[in-house]
Batch of 2 targets.
Target 1
Amino acid sequence: MPEDRQAEAQPLAPGLYLVATPIGNLEDITLRALRVLTSADRIACEDTRQTQKLLNHFAIRTPTVSYHMHNEAPRTVELIEQLKHGARIAVVSDAGTPGIADPGSQIAAAAIAAGIPVYPIPGANAALSALIASGLSSERFTFHGFLPAKEGQRRTVLEHLSRTGETHIFYEAPHRIVGTLADIEVTFGPDQPIVLARELTKLHEEFLRGPVSELHAQLSARQSIRGEFVLLLAPAAADAAASPRSQSIAAEVAALMQSENLTEKDALKRVARERGIGKSEAYRELQREQNRLR
Ligand code: SAM
């Protein structure tokens, strides 16, 4: 029998199961997720009423317990105690993958510390769904979760984003999206291409792609903005390549060692990161420069 069929036939092993649930379209639940949710002793839910709708839809009768940001610490202790006695506990969030901008990682860490097996049950996730259909590079990306609600702090985060060609992914609420677009326009300029993914996997799924100024104007003109957003932007790596650094790597490393009291290794790591190149590439270039000077 193939390995996955054998697993299906076995009773669920004791342990903690982090189960992804749909982000809109109920078809986006896996067969394995349904089996785990059906067979677990208990499902810890971010919102029991929300999850109950999903469980009712699939006729799953497993008991639920609340597990959210306000009771995460005491509930973790309680659930770990049950897991130590051989329980099978599933953790779900309201939508998507637990632990991604949602509760889940604290109990996973506690279970690992207690020697309890932790099983990921993969499935829907808004960030990755948006990324793969964005048309932006998915070779290197950073997921930042939500930007700060306050404009000043938001701009500071935006100003410090790397501009080395990687794709940045954010979650954003509908009532903040216009303000955030205004901040991106100021920080990156009106022509910065961005992608907005709204209502992913739902009936009114929408992808908006274009310069930030255009999408800002487009959303500002809407009477109401509904739905959940993923925002992606990829500052052009060409900027870095088009404006070659005036300083050599050796000079930048020396300046950092002096001004910030860094070791050569740490300074080189920083320079590599800022230039968007690997540490070994930066090291080889440093050696070449030093050899030229000898
Ligand atoms: N754990 C979830 C995941 O795996 O994607 C994310 C939970 S986070 C609290 C909720 C945010 O995810 C929303 O504010 C929105 O930015 C994004 N999101 C969730 N569902 C979405 C959807 N269907 N379309 C677009 N964005 C969504």
Target 2
Amino acid sequence: MAARKIIVDTDPGQDDAVAILLALASPGEIEVLDITCVAGNVPLELTARNARIVCELANRPNIPIYAGCDRPLKRHLVTAEHVHGITGLDGPMLPEPVMPLKDGHAVDFIIDTLRKTEPKTVTLVPIGPLTNVGAALERAPEIASRIQEIVLMGGAYFEVGNVTPTAEFNIYVDPHAAKTVFSSGVPITVMPLDVTHKALVTDKRSNAFRSIGNKAGVAVAEMTGFFERFDREKYGANAAPLHDPCTIAYLLQPDIFSGRHVNVEIETSSELTMGMTVADWWRVTDRPANALFMGDMDANAFFTLLTDKIARL
Ligand code: BDR
Ligand code: CA
């Protein structure tokens, strides 16, 4: 089978970095058409820098990388240096990138790519705030019917929120873009906190990355080690969740995850619950399902896949 074409839309972020590494380590199954960067964990200038660092770490300096929106569609940018460090990629010492950014804006690139490729052959994988994807859908609504699928990390139902009591970071930062995406009619698969909080990097799993012995394995151990200190304090757990790679793992091995087709609406009016993903998990309304909302995962299978793939870099 031909490799699945994807665009990774990202705000690296250590867990974004691991997701990118996983995709680049899987050329037989996944073709990364390009990486589009968005402001989120840190400002755009840094996410665009970090994406290039990660591609160079994977020895893939030819992956096209575009910078996109530097702020949410309607709200002020909220960042997460308290989790990811001042650079967004704190932890390992990695060289400044030399590969250039592509000229042009990420949103234009997303629109142009979807217009010129055969319909339903490109999957979008947003693992940051949904600003670039939402802007593309608002500017060129006809691209919706050309997208194969959107597989995103964001939202929560049982876990409710991580940046406010009721909202997950990616959706909270740009709830208006998220609303556009969830009402677009595109097939959507969601990796919410309910799933990603089960993808825990324990000491054993971190040691497994380090013992691979290649540059990428050591960097993954150091990156996850960095943000772990924050999550350990916050959740009082011994291990930190590895959110974003769940999206790529789903493309590689969907049976690791299970969930429900449900309706998901995004709160954009109430400041108190801004960015909440109102998922009809128990199907108590007759609102039509618009997303496959994951609820569970096989964490051992996920880490086995991830470790095997990182070993190939
Ligand atoms: C999401 O927020 C970011 O901090 C992570 O990179 C992930 O995409 C988790 O809520
Ligand atoms: Ca992210």
